[in-house]
Predict the structure of Galactose-1-phosphate uridylyltransferase.
Amino acid sequence: MPELRYDPFRVRWTVIATERGRRPSDYIVKREDIQMKACPFCYGHEDKTPPEVFVIAPPERKPNQEGWEVRVVPNKYPALRIEGELVREGVGYFDKISGIGAHEVIIESPWHEKNLPDLPVEHIKKVLIAYKERILDLRKDNRFRYILIFKNYGKEAGASLSHPHSQLIATPMIPTVVVTELQASREHYKRKERCLLCDIMRQELAFGERIVFENDNYVVWEPFASSFPFETWLVPKKHLHDFALLDDAELDELALVLKDMLLRIKKVLNDPPYNMVLHTAPTPHARPGRPDYWETLEYDYHWHIELIPRITKIAGFEWGSGLYINPTPPEEAARYLKEVDIEF
Amino acid sequence: MPELRYDPFRVRWTVIATERGRRPSDYIVKREDIQMKACPFCYGHEDKTPPEVFVIAPPERKPNQEGWEVRVVPNKYPALRIEGELVREGVGYFDKISGIGAHEVIIESPWHEKNLPDLPVEHIKKVLIAYKERILDLRKDNRFRYILIFKNYGKEAGASLSHPHSQLIATPMIPTVVVTELQASREHYKRKERCLLCDIMRQELAFGERIVFENDNYVVWEPFASSFPFETWLVPKKHLHDFALLDDAELDELALVLKDMLLRIKKVLNDPPYNMVLHTAPTPHARPGRPDYWETLEYDYHWHIELIPRITKIAGFEWGSGLYINPTPPEEAARYLKEVDIEF
């Protein structure tokens, strides 16, 4: 008998097809090659991108030359624009906001063929530092209410360039998915004076069956109501709303746990395309009294990372219902991911 | 300058990339063939499916033999099961419901190669009658709170068989996307004593620039905050919450308008894969006082059909934010769809 499962944090139901229980080898993992002449993210092509806005490089290196380790540049084809005035306007029953924002590319390393889990832990930490520094810098701009960092790996997951990179989009409103999590967290906090994700984490640790990895400071698990097979969350044990508040030691350990998680996904699912998203608190620029202002943010929200392998199709049912059908129970996915041997 | 646009009915923002303005020919429309030996939906293979639960056929035809015009059968691999007890259970902070439901396939015609818009209007009406009759029948089962009818056309849109068919899934809870629309509609009704979608329709008709087609009883338009390029809605002018209340004359005309809409999409986008979803009221089996009970349903909800061509990829940004990036403004999409010559 399949099960309908409800996630109180994302306010969403999923159908878990417990009987079918598709194994990793049952998924046809497609990885179409992305063809291109010259990669604009490789050494020597620094002039093919807009000038860098952040870089990790030796002090003697000149800007926009080779020699860097992590490089952040504006997206050449931005979804939202940094220049211009932020105008909020009503159009009858509709609303519109001028498309002000930032759209940046975090080039994770100079190595075209090395993906995030293939990099040394120390290098992964540098990518995380780039995430943090860009968030801190863009927050100074009071037009932005949210800064979303995500990674599309593989063409099937939406990547248009194969050189490993993450992306950042700053928006003048808080995106719906984040609002839903924030509202659920706030409601829980109002009732219990506890963080919802902290409570869910304690429960997952007690149940145990969906845990992939745990150390002193982080937990990796498959959520109870996983929308996708092998959906995986990386959650810090310490209650903290804001990723950008992580200190050096915390980033060190996060890099290690992230590498571990990505290596498991890569090995179990044969290097699948995936999307990874950093869920963190909004910027402090919303106004008190407005629906996107969260007074108790530091108490009720809890930053984390969500990853979904893109090995199933999203069809009319999912689009029309918001209800996903997941053919691999998270308990089984956790077992595969936990038991696999990975080499660091 | 791109625009962020808000849809008060679906409670969702979209980025409309007004500058790029991708034309239909800019989209690479993929249509991978679905290979199979013998089609279980063609004449002579009636024993390859579970026995039919509804059929439109001449009276002399025997059940589960050829000679039918529209045939509805249970899905051989159902996402939810019809047999069993409906159990609602708490699991700590989570909820679960046994996977009770119905999952049926509406085989639209015996013609393997003829898709919905290629059928005569009179035959399309028979498909709509099948939708209506299955909704009315399944509503008698008080375990079901919602009956979702949808169509995946093309492998890229999630179809696993190429013989034209729609699907139906009955669920023991109201799916999230529907709840969001219902809540927004109810809020609007509470304030104004008017239907939100009626108000939006009047406004779209006044603006005119997103209208694709209009006759006495139906309007087809591109929504202001279209999440996808060429997203298209078909909305009845008459306020009615429930598709299954349509009478014979209304179904006649709906068949005509639906054919018109699908032919336009097919011609402008070169026969793209798409998802189509019927949005209609929940069944009457929710309980008063519960969050999924809508006392004023017949006043505030408004049935309609939504269609999205699957010509763009859903990536990490969309998944992590709920915010879609649409590279073709709906005003331009409407112009293409309106101006195209179609042959009935």
Notes: Helices of chain B lie at 121-138, 176-192, 196-207, 248-268, 297-300, 316-321, 330-339. Residues 248-268 of chain B form the longest helix (21 residues). Residues 3-339 of chain B form a domain with the HIT family, subunit A fold (CATH 3.30.428.10). The CA atoms of residues 74 and 104 of chain B lie 4 Å apart.
